[in-house]
Specification:
By secondary structure, this protein is α/β, with parallel strands linked by helices. 31% of the residues lie in helices and 22% in strands. The strands form two sheets. It has an eight-stranded mixed sheet with strand order 1-2-4-3-5-6-9-10, with helices on both faces. Helix 2 crosses helix 3.
């Protein structure tokens, strides 16, 4: 989907948790930027997954700039996926926030899809400027992702590494990933979030069940909100579902973002970083 006429998309990159260059896109409004958001994609997805592109485009059209990036070893980013784990993903997220802070403005909104939602819940504490956190189809426990490894999980435990098929693609998963996932206690992070939280989930999500949304919501303190993505699938593959999610996020987050633009209309945000060609 090409950018809307009133938005633009520029390329960016920054160093990730392991020192590799991570590929990013920044969706920018044509006029004043009300705030910036940071988007974390789903497990083994990329910044260009349909949901990420459409939500970023929708938010940009409403005046919110969005940085979306590929985690280490995924998409166009450098590094080896097999050497990563949830902790390194969270560090990648914090580094992405640093890039926004240094070149545009610190993110006021954090949005995470699926395991990316768990990452924003875990990493929000290290991004003090973030005032609002949004999860979309997120698991309430990092270890939930291990349920998708099937019989390969036992092989990983015994041999230290195995090939796992996820969304039709083969990935090498090491025991360090499994051990790291099992060590995280996301409930504690949610309870001490100290930021506004919006939990979005599809009731018929067959990848991450709706009960995860209930656990996240109950663990969080107010202010918190829940929105049902009725009729949507886990990946928000229906364009209408992604567009709806973007509209709801913008309306909800408006209460928590600055009242004055962080980048005025007479100071194009594209000048805040080294020039790079626009991308579709």
């Amino acid at each position: 989907m090409p950018p809307r006429p009133d938005t633009s998309v520029i390329r960016a990159s920054f160093k990730g948790s392991q020192g590799f260059e991570l590929s990013a896109r920044v969706d920018l409004p044509a006029g004043p930027v009300r705030a910036f958001a940071l988007f974390a994609h789903c497990f083994t997805c990329t910044k260009d997954v349909v949901a990420a592109k459409r939500i970023a485009s929708g938010l940009a059209a409403a005046g919110i700039g969005v940085l979306r990036f590929d985690f280490t070893g995924l998409g166009s980013s450098e590094g080896e996926f097999a050497n990563t784990n949830f902790s390194s993903n969270v560090e990648d997220l914090v580094n992405a926030a640093t890039h926004l802070r240094e070149h545009f403005a610190a993110p006021a909104i954090l949005v995470g899809h699926s395991l990316g939602g768990a990452a924003v819940l875990a990493g929000a504490h290290d991004i003090p400027e973030a005032r609002a956190v949004v999860t979309i189809g997120a698991p309430a426990d990092v270890g939930h992702v291990l349920n998708h490894f099937g019989s390969s999980l036992e092989e990983i435990r015994k041999k230290g590494e195995a090939q796992v098929t996820l969304a039709g693609r083969r990935f090498s998963i090491r025991h360090s990933f499994v051990a790291d996932a099992e060590e995280h206690r996301l409930q504690d992070r949610i309870g001490s979030l100290n930021k506004a939280l919006l939990v979005m989930h599809a009731p018929r999500d067959t990848v991450v069940g709706i009960e995860n949304a209930s656990k996240i919501f109950l663990a969080a303190k107010h202010p918190k909100s829940f929105v049902s993505l009725d009729g949507a699938d886990h990946l928000l593959s229906d364009p209408a579902a992604a567009a709806y999610a973007a509209r709801v996020i913008e309306a909800w987050a408006s209460k928590y973002i600055p009242q004055t633009p962080v980048v005025p209309e007479n100071e194009p945000a594209s000048l805040a970083v080294p020039a790079s060609p626009p991308t579709q």
